Amino acid sequence: MKRLPVLVFFLGPLAWQVLTSFWPEPELTRALPHALTVANYAGLGTTFARAVLNSLLVAAGTTALCLAVGASAAFAVAKLEFRGRSLLFGGALAISMFPPIATVSPLYLVLRAAGLRDTLAGLILPYATFALPLTLWLLTSFFRDLPDELYRAARVDGCTPWQAFVHVFLPLSWPALATSAILVFIFSWNELLYALSFISTPSKRTIPVAIALFAGEHVEPWGQIAAASVVATVPLAFLTLFFQRRIVAGLTAGAVKE
Amino acid sequence: MKRHLLVLVACLACARQGREAQPPGPVTIVLEHQPLWGDPAAFHASLERFQQENPGVVVRTQTLPNASDVAREMFLTALEGGADDFDVFAIDVVWAPEFARAGWLADLTSAFPPERLRAQYLASTIEAVTLDGKIYAVPWFLDVGLLYYRTDLVPRAPKTYAELQSFARAAMARNPGLAGYLWQGRQYEGLNCNVFEAIWGHGGDLLRDGRIALDTDAARAGLGFLREAIASGLSPRSVVASAEEETRRAFQDGRAVFLRNWPYVWAEVQKPGSPVRGKVGFAPLPSETGAPGPGTLGGWQLAVNAHSPPWRRRAAEKLVAFLTSGEAAVELALRYSRIPARRAVYDDPRVREGAPFIAALLPVALAARPRPVTPYYALASDSIQGELSGAVAGLRSPADALSRAQRIVDHLESR
Amino acid sequence: MKARSQAALLAAPAMAILAGVAVLPVLAAIWLSLHRSILVFHEERFIGIANFRFLFSDGRFWSALGTTAYFTAVAVAAELLIGLPVAMLLQRGGGFFRAAILLPWAIPTAVSARMWAWLFNADYGLLHRLLPGVDWLGSPRTALHAAILVDVWKTTPFVALILLAGLSAIPGDVVKAARVDGARPARIFFSITLPLLRPAILLALLFRSLDAFRVFDAIYVLTEGGPANATETLSIYAYKTLLRSGDFGYGSALSVATFACVLGIGLVFLRFLGRER
Q1: CA-CA to A246 of 20 to 30 Å: which in A240, B130, B272, C112?
Q2: Which residues of chain B does A117 touch, with a Cβ-Cβ cutoff of 8 Å?
Q3: Does residue B377 share a domain with residue B357?
Q4: Which residues contact B414 (CB under 8 A, 6 or more apart)?
Q5: C44 lies in some domain
Q6: pLDDT at B16 over 60
Q7: C144: which chain B residues are within 8 Å (Cβ-Cβ)?
Q8: Which of A29, A201, A216 sits opposite B249 (nearest CB)?
């Protein structure tokens, strides 16, 4: 019973948004619509579908890069005697604290010189960078909690540290990886500033940019914007539904260990 | 500093930074513009015609974001980075002095002599593209602030502020719950437009000897009028948080007597299903004296990228001339409801017949005035918004707000 | 020896990415803050710390700092107070419930801010119909709290997630034993659960404070910092200075100042967290 107010608070505005997306445009000023329509969805067009695809590509790429890089670094910090650990940690955290707005112009020049401006790869790199600290934190604490005997046993068996990492530790860390994955994915999905500044070709735009640019020069089609945001949310909803099992499993693994 | 940075990373990309000679084959120029609301087929057909008339030139288009702020930031980042992947681009009317001073716009004076432009276009539109006597962009189409009124609630359009108030109050007395005068009071560029119109309507000028002048009697009167409108209940409190769309929807719902907004509203209120369809009229804004009050000049102009290499620039200038020709302007008016900057288009019989609203807009268009045409306006605009918002929200007196704004502007201009 | 170099190799990609993509632009921004750099006038003069000297006497900066601090304090406190009960519900909830709770946080902020802007609309918003007479976005005080509400709505799920991790780490037997001993639920909560939850709470406080201090989207979409700059935070001030006015020198200085504040907050929390270990 306690769940109901919580659900209403968190899902209420979303439900209203879904309702707005089916609301006929001329009736938006009324208290409730007289009829529902799918015109707002029909008006979205293929450009928005393209934006959804771009967002998926960028988010998937960012997640893959961030996890690959983050997991190996976290392993080095947690299990191997890595000397630069506080530098890596502190540096990553400090970098992510810097207001992104001030780095737009210099980063633009860097990407342009590297030939990555107006490419999706040019977005993946900065995104992975800003998502790295949280990933490092999560994965490092997870690896730290795994017993050192596992590593020592693997080394005794003749594994190199890399083999120990890939064959022993990685398979055990699916829960933590899943948690990090969904965090990075959502961050990348939501990011607006860099996507707006570095991508100029309309066919390469991501969802936040597409929605931000939905407005006409003066007219703001609230119904269509609502429809676009619903379409943008649906993949995330499925991902959340799918991953939440693993996340909770990862989080409760600690409890079992006691 | 940026040059140092470029040198640093030049090792990565020496090959890409070379100056190219004109490559063989057709010259491809890129046009960046917002989506023209309506069927793009006609526009593409006209571009086809251009390419036929100019063999050896290929035109590619790219769409810009609609929101002016967003487009400006994109251009700021791109042009500062020396982008040359587009040749002709549409710029908002307020960017011209700023971009010209930054050296991002090619000087078009030789291709478009000022005297010829002044003869063909509305004076205010040419004023907005001239910096130090040189032409940096050609007006494409314009936007202008105007007054909408309910023909079933008031006898005619008010000519003076006094009439505006008395007409509104009479209508409000007959219909309780009605709002008198809706305008945009949120803290954004639109607020500047509204306040400037009130200042101009009270006989003020915003530029004195090329410098922005806000601390004047007319300014205090104008800003005071807007503040009084809210305080006295002529305008509802919600205008302080309203931009164009909020006020448009309220007016379209039949809940207001007067609305200050842009011409796009006309098509919206005349749509079938609109509660005020057939009951709306439009006119220039009122003023103290009864002469047509100036409306803020908006709209877009075509400029040529200064970074484009010379052979593309020549083709780009030809494209600009083509797109801003009289015929093109008529087509823009008929098919895309774009208000022309060329004087003759208003009298064109095709426009009179096919787009009567535009033809009838001539008095309003003639009364248009640009915001201060100085590169410092872009720098100061944001601070001005903040101060004006303080007066409109009732946090400060208009005199206070204006003197503070003047101090900030002076500080910026003296640097 | 070999392990060390292998360790370095494993960590190398991370360091390379950080160095190339993040460190360079950050250093560039810090370098810019020492210049007078107005984009449009192509002014670029080294002026040392003059920008920062101006910053200390800039009323708008201090007002923005105050607004930002207030926003952070209230938002984070609310998120913790709401997040803890939600975390407890998540512990027992089913998959659908969990996914539903996470949804607000998954939506792009720009989208959810627009959604709330529509709800807050002074003429047509649902909230206006439910609670008429409140001028949500037009009055400075209510506008800031409206933005706080949007932020709380969006990120409480994230806080709840972290707290859930903390809750799951609490050994179940301790709680069971206490209950068997007859202790009341409130007593159990305050004496056992809460203290054991301290690391998770501090972690949540850390990440949320860092983010809340840099809030941009929620406020920008709702009020753009108005009315009269009353809801302007440091990020919005920096954004306007950088991209609207084209004053790259002072805008970078504002960003550096924000960075210093955020760094300060981070260090304070890390010290608290360090004591935990």
Answers
A1: C112
A2: 81
A3: no
A4: none
A5: no
A6: no
A7: none
A8: A29
Question: Within an 8 Å CB–CB cutoff, is residue B245 touching chain C?
Answer: no
pLDDT in tens, B58-107: 999 888 877 787 788 888 878 887 888 899 999 999 999 999 998 999 99
Q: What is the pLDDT of residue A218?
A: 65
Report chain C's terminal Cα–Cα distance, integer Å. Answer: 28
Q: Is A201 on the interface with B (CB under 8 A)?
A: yes
CATH number at residue C248: 1.10.3720.10
Query: C138 vs B393: CB contact, 8 Å cut-off?
Result: yes
CB burial string C81-104: b at 16+ within 10 A, e below: ebbbebbbbbbebeeebbbbbbbb
CB count in 10 Å sphere of residue A232: 24
Gap from C247 CA to chain B (nearest CA, Å): 8
**Residue with the larger pLDDT of the pair B266 and C106:** B266
Domain span including residue B73: 27-143+298-369
C132 contact A CB<8A:
no
User: By residue range, what is the domain housing residue C134?
Assistant: 56-276
Model pLDDT, residue B9: 46
The SS3 assignment for B144 reads strand
B114 token code pair: 């000022």
For residue A113, give how far its alpha carbon lies from the nearest alpha carbon of chain C (Å): 12
3-state secondary structure (DSSP) of residue B310: helix
In a domain, B36, yes or no: yes
| Whether B208 and B101 share a structural domain | no
| CATH code where residue B113 lies | 3.40.190.10
For tokens 């749509």, name the residue. Answer: B271
Asked if C44 is an interface residue toward chain B (Cβ–Cβ < 8 A), one would say yes
Q: In the numeric block, which tokens belong to residue C48?
A: 């040392």
Q: Which residues pair with C247 in a beta bridge?
A: C38
CA–CA gap between residue A103 and residue B171 (Å, rounded): 54
Q: Which residue in B191, B223, B382 has the most chain C C-beta atoms within 10 A of its own C-beta, making it the best mutation to test that interface?
A: B382
CATH node for A51-257:
1.10.3720.10
Mean per-residue pLDDT, C41-55: 86
Q: For residues B123 and B159, state if they share a domain.
A: no
Domain count, chain C: 1
Q: Which of residues 53-112 of C touch A (CB under 8 A)?
A: 85-86, 89-90, 93, 95-112
Model ipTM?
0.77
Do B46 and B131 share a structural domain?
yes
Q: Please check whether residue C7 lies inside any domain of the structure.
A: no
Q: Does residue C38 lie within any of the structural domains?
A: no
Same domain (yes/no): B397, B255:
yes
Minimal CA separation from B244 to chain A, in Å: 7
Predicted pLDDT of residue A254: 41
pLDDT of residue B22 exceeding 80: no
Beta strands in A15-102 (DSSP E): none
Give C225 to chain B, closest Cα distance, Å: 8
pLDDT digits (tens, 9 = 90+) for B310-361: 989 999 999 999 999 999 999 999 988 899 999 999 999 999 999 999 999 9
Question: Total structural domains in chain B?
Answer: 2
Condensed to tens digits (0 to 9), the pLDDT of residues B134-189 reads 999 999 999 999 999 999 999 999 999 999 999 999 999 999 989 999 999 999 89
Residue position matching structure tokens 């609109």: B274
Q: Does B230 lie in the same domain as B378?
A: yes
Mean pLDDT in runs of 10 for chain A (258 residues)? 80 85 79 81 83 92 92 82 73 79 80 83 88 82 81 82 81 81 86 83 84 69 83 79 66 41
| CB spacing of C42 vs B103 below 8 angstroms | yes
First to last CA, chain A: 31
B398 and B320 in one domain? no
Judged by DSSP in three states, B136 sits in: coil
Looking at residues B293-312, what average pLDDT do you find? Answer: 93
Within 10 Å of residue B150's Cβ, how many Cβ atoms? 21
Tell me the nearest-neighbour CA distance from B121 into chain C, angstroms: 28
Q: In the structure, what pLDDT confidence band is assigned to residue B295 with cuts at 50, 70 and 90?
A: very high
